[in-house]
Amino acid sequence: MSTAPMELQSERVIVQAPLSFAGSTKRILRLTEPHRALALKAVVGPWWKGTLRVLLDGLLVLTVGTLLFLTWIFIAVWYLFWGILLIPYRLIRRSDRNRKREALQHREMLDAAIAAQAVATKRMAESESPKSAETTEPPAPQKNPELGR
Q1: Neighbouring C-alpha atoms within 13 Å toward the C-beta of 111
Q2: Considering only Cβ atoms within 10 Å of each terminal Cβ, which end of the chain, N or C, has fewer?
Q3: What does each C-alpha distance from 107 to 12, 17, 114 come to in angstroms?
Q4: pTM for this prediction
Q5: Which CA distances in Å does 38 have to 50, 61, 69, 72?
Q6: Nearest-angstrom CA–CA distance, 134 and 123
Q7: What does each C-alpha distance from 3 to 7, 42, 49, 113 come to in angstroms?
Q8: Which residues, including other chains, have CB under 8 Å from residue 117's CB and lie 6 or more apart?
Q9: What pLDDT is stored for residue 38 in this prediction?
Q10: What stretches in the chain show pLDDT beneath 70?
Q11: d(Cα 113, Cα 120) in Å, to the nearest integer?
């Protein structure tokens, strides 16, 4: 059983614009998520498998670094020529992405509340089922020796 916290879908939403330094960096670094570069795990098997993994992770880091460098140069040139004209548009788009993230967070909270309510209802039904069997049977008559019965 894993003790790592589950990542929610709303946590994966990137609010920053794609043509911003922060937004482009987050989107490019997302390329490394399945591989987790430099998080080398113990490799069981021949030595060449571990070496190959190190080389592939190194190649991934070089590729991502080069891509970040080229993207940042492009964004800097973009800002110098066109970026200033698009500030109002970018603000509107950012608010759209914020609303999308908030809607996802709201949906996740509703799903959690529904799941908690279902668990509570199930527990209540389980706790009442033995009691209901006892209450449906009529009580057995008690014999009282003093009355002669």
Answers
A1: 9
A2: N
A3: 14, 23, 11
A4: 0.49
A5: 12, 8, 20, 23
A6: 18
A7: 12, 20, 28, 22
A8: none
A9: 47
A10: 1-5, 34-45, 47, 130-149
A11: 10
